[in-house]
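WARN no homologs supplied; continuing
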Amino acid sequence: MILLTTIDLQIPTTTPPLGPGLAHKVLQYLGQKPQAPSLAALDALVTAYTRRVPWESASRIVKRANAPLLIDRPRWPAEFWGDAMRLGTGGTCFESNYAFFSLLRFLGYEGHLTINNMGETVGCHTAIVITLEGQPYLVDVGLPIYLPLPLDPTQTTHRATVFHTYSATPLGSGHYRIERDHHPRPDCFTLIDTPIEDATYRAATMTDYSEHGLFLDRVIVNRVVDGYIWRFASEQAPYQLEVFQNGEKTFFYLGDDPSTAAEKVARQFNLDETLLRTALQSLLVPVERQISA
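OK structure emitted
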């Protein structure tokens, strides 16, 4: 008989790093080389991610439909990165930030995951806090925030990117109000800088696939393409692509047919067309109701 001690049963308190083989493939996919942790290297990783990996909900809609058991639905880092390299997918904040943090852990970055609030909605958004030479930075590829944002509990900090200038205003007790300019909704979220243990984060990710999970009722794709932010949201009728250029929003109408929309959206974002079509077809009834309204 083998007796298991308390130590044998302990669950890691922080996110395990990616294995070396997968991590090097991911870095190649992002066009990056392994470097020692630094702000410049972290800037490059965040920039590469937001130009290559979309914020999208199609993959989780399809995964939920194909996995009857809640425990089988989350797309953990190996699956997340494998799908990204094979299908051009990404994810929403729980899976995106978890997968990105696992890459950062492989590269030697020190930090932790957080679960945060958006307005009155509690625990709906995640982010990473990385510490470099004693300075904490907010890293969030799940919104995304396009560069790491320094945090200071005594004063408001700022970071300019090509799209927005972000700010972090301390509210006390490790809470920060995260904001952006050049956006109709400047308030991003309230960061709660409390480290979340791995098991707790994974449980929250699993819950986000339940009937109360977010973004399971609409297909959204958002990514930087050719230097501009492009977006598709299936709840808009007729289907359309949006692009943000020089503070202006331009629409490209795709019609009402989900197959045609899937083809054009897939081409624009270099995203698997079959996956997009499957996700849109699964939402066909709600879309038709919105169009008729």
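Residues 39-52 form the longest helix (14 residues).
OK
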